[in-house]
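Researcher: Here's the sequence for the chain we discussed earlier.
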Amino acid sequence: MEIAKLSASKRSDQGKGPSRRLRTAGQIPAIAYGKNLAATTLAVDPKALKVALSGPHGRNAVVEVAVEGGSKITAMVREYAHHPVTREILHADFLQVDLAQPVDVDVPFKLTGKPKGVVLGGILTQVFRTLPVRCVPEKIPALLELDVTELDLGESTKVAQLKLPEGVSVRFPAEQTVAAVVAPDTRGEEEAKPGAPGAPAGKAAPAAAAGKAAPAAAAAAAKPAADKKKK
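Model: Thanks. This is the structure I predict for it:
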């Protein structure tokens, strides 16, 4: 991974007023922190940050923040806020990282190819759109792909079967399914068949109602006769 470069300056004023003035001047408030870095308030160029985040790694990009005065912070963007209309970045949080220590990130996951099972009428199911990955920052993949061309009807691919770059692991159990080709759901057709379990009663309902009505009619007919005997 290519590490993006970003310039920053330290800021002492905090609050809505100073932040508003900072944005008017073409900068945004930011903060950098980490295990070995006390919270440091910064001012950065939002356009330069947007460029760094628009690269192939997106939010998983690693940036080197050169702070005015000589210090440099290797970090990743932990969080950022943007304007709801203009989508301009308004604030950013940088988390310091060690290039020799693994980090946990979510990486986009894409399926390629047309499975054999789909040709036979099956349906391809992709269980996850992103995968939780652990690796050192410089080895974070921009994208993980799985070729499902050979996946037959009723077959699936587990995490253990994924071909991952060296030094990259997925933080899921080895038996976790990530993609499968399943048979079309035929339950709707079965329910439409007469007599099928769970099928609508259809014409049977009026018959049942008629069955219940017969005793009631007989009782009604017997009532006048009983009344005459009493008289």
